[in-house]
Amino acid sequence: MATSTLIQSLIIGADADQSARSKRETFLAGGTIAKGDFVSLDSSQTGADRALYVKVIDTSGGAVAIGVPTVGVAMNAASAGGQVVVVVAGYAEGANVATGSTANLALTLDTTTSGRATIAAAANVNIAAIALENATSNAADVWVMPSI
Hints:
This protein is mostly beta strands. The chain has one domain: Virus Head Decoration Protein, Chain: A. It contains no helices and 9 strands. The protein has strands at 22-29, 38-41, 53-56, 72-74, 83-96, 106-109, 117-119, 129-131, 139-144. It has a 5-stranded mixed β-barrel with strand order 1-3-2-4-5.
């Protein structure tokens, strides 16, 4: 998980990989992960593998999103054991968000759909990202709040 941050150059209209606008780490998938899913460390692994594997954050059972640890947003789909690049801080295109998420609002984990973020409704939840645009077909560009 070595990361280097290069000197920035400010190029208007550059793509998401330009100018250190996001910090990315490569992990192994602890299960099936879709591009854009919010992921966390996979504590079902053993030893140091708990920091090597990530999995989709499971909140589908109505779990309370307070304190759910978010590592970031998956930038590619992966099957169990495959490599997945995760934006752990900064700009992430096409994150999995709830319809109705709007620009400039804090997003927390959706308690009805795993791996998805929604508008934060309470002050004491784990803020996972900030929406940079209105959601379209359950996707939006976001700014991932660093947590690692």
